[in-house]
Write a structure and sequence with these properties.
Number of strands: 18
Number of domains: 2
Largest sheet: 9 strands, mixed
CATH topology of the largest domain: Aspartate Aminotransferase, domain 2
Mean pLDDT: 96
Strand order of the largest sheet: 1-9-8-5-4-2-3-16-17
Bound molecules: pyridoxal-5'-phosphate
CATH superfamily of the largest domain: Type I PLP-dependent aspartate aminotransferase-like (Major domain)
CATH architecture of the largest domain: 3-Layer(aba) Sandwich
CATH class of the largest domain: Alpha Beta
């Protein structure tokens, strides 16, 4: 049967407006509250904190800004306030998730710290607690961990938290992709000493941009709100005792978020239906979807991802910017599937390329469960078939179109395209 290309492009994950967004944006404009103060901001902070179950939420210009202030805050709590022009993490290592978007880890560098990347486990594709424990054996002085919940699937929080507590370390939780997901019935965003979510355009709920910092400490929330508005002291002139930032959310953006927030559960249900349909449609192929343990966690299904079994991988070689593959009957590879999707007018994407494989971070340490991940012998690679878990998932995995507006027929057509790649 011939597969028809999509007339309108099928996106990986695009914004879904419902109408209420317009109402709150209009109200902001009509009442002239067009700045970084206003009712939409207050409401969005209240609603977000309530939905997630945290005491305080601070509305910021992006998830990246929220991560920056979260990481800076923890740095100052651990090491004290730095001199002006110096980062709060200068001279210090920080343990970070390895397989993630680089916005998770860049703020460590903004604050002058050195990220040490922790390898990934196979059960949820998040930070491996055994590798984290190993990292503390190698670098016992580290006091900060930055952890992500990838693609909306919660990490192994009990294990990670107990390693952090044992070593007296603070945790920054990057829940940018996992808004609405829960672990043992507690929502992601509740697990970090400081946590963040993102309202960027591709996230499950969006303001076009924007982010939130979450904490249970009134003092910390206060501090972040002050830093985000140029660190003005309580004086009638501009008085400054510390470095400031222009990181506050705008009341217009907050209007979009305010209109979106009631639809979180609906978006999750739509994403779950897409994930379930992919799983059913692809079950006869040598592939699996991004995994989770349904007894422990409830993902938000932000992106459905595919992992090709090793034995069904055709030959694929990736350079710094290009990829080549050889098509083989009964086999496929991410590059072949991504090219096929693009041909049919659908957007897929490779798995986040692990941070330890990024040229910018090539000098940073990388720790696996068995120790220094940069010192793998050729014998090890030959015996195991992979260098490390992150590199392996990157090699064999890809993100499928997961737009919540996709119909069953559209998911089925993507499934047919993938079958064609394995034919
Ligand atoms: C999107 C994202 C961010 C950054 O959020 P922005 O709002 O785009 O700055 C950080 N971490 C992860 C894992 C993300 O997916």
């Amino acid at each position: 049967m011939e597969i028809k290309p999509f007339t309108n492009k099928i996106w990986l994950s695009s914004p879904t407006m419902h109408g209420d967004e317009q109402k709150w944006v209009d109200e902001a404009i009509l009442t002239n509250w067009v700045s970084t103060v206003g009712a939409n901001i207050n409401e969005v902070e209240r609603m977000t904190a309530e939905k997630i179950g945290r005491k305080y939420a601070v509305a910021l210009s992006s998830g990246t800004a929220a991560l920056h202030l979260a990481i800076k805050l923890c740095g100052e709590k651990i090491y004290g306030q730095p001199k002006v022009g110096h980062g709060s993490l200068e001279g210090h290592k920080v343990f970070c998730s390895d397989m993630t978007f680089d916005a998770t880890v860049n703020p460590v560098a903004y604050e002058g710290g050195e990220a040490v990347f922790i390898d990934t486990e196979r059960d949820t594709w998040n930070m491996d607690p055994a590798a984290l424990e190993k990292a503390f054996e190698i670098y016992p002085d580290v006091r900060l961990v930055v952890l992500v919940h990838l693609y909306g699937t919660p990490a192994k929080m009990d294990e990670i938290r107990s390693v952090c507590d044992k070593h007296n370390a603070l945790m920054v939780e990057d829940a940018a992709e996992s808004f609405g997901a829960s672990y043992k019935e507690v929502q992601t965003g509740c697990f970090g000493d400081v946590s963040i979510i993102s309202y960027n355009g591709n996230k499950i709920i969006t303001g076009s941009s924007g982010g939130m910092l979450l904490t249970d400490s009134e003092e910390w929330a206060h501090k972040v709100r002050k830093w985000s508005t140029q660190s003005r002291e309580d004086a009638s002139w501009y008085q400054h005792e510390e470095l400031g930032y222009n990181y506050r959310m705008s009341n217009i953006i907050a209007g979009v978020v305010r209109g979106q927030l009631p639809y979180l559960e609906e978006h999750i249900a739509q994403k779950k239906a897409i994930y379930d349909r992919y799983r059913e449609g692809l079950k006869d192929l040598p592939v699996t979807l991004n995994p989770f343990d349904s007894a422990i966690s409830q993902p938000n299904y932000w992106l459905s991802c595919l992992l090709i079994e090793q034995c069904a991988m055709s030959k694929q070689v990736r350079g710094e910017k290009e990829a080549l593959y050889i098509s083989e009957p009964g086999k496929s590879c991410p590059t072949e599937i991504l090219e096929a999707l693009a041909r049919y007018n659908a957007e897929g994407r490779p798995i986040w390329k692990p941070m330890h494989m990024q040229p910018i971070y090539r000098m940073n340490p990388f720790i696996t469960a068995s120790g220094n991940g940069r010192a793998r012998s050729n014998a090890y690679i030959k015996e195991n078939g992979f260098v490390d878990v992150g590199a392996d998932i990157f090699e064999r995995g890809l993100c499928l179109p997961s737009d919540n507006k996709m119909t069953s027929e559209q998911v089925d057509r993507i499934v047919a395209v993938i079958h064609e790649c394995f034919a």
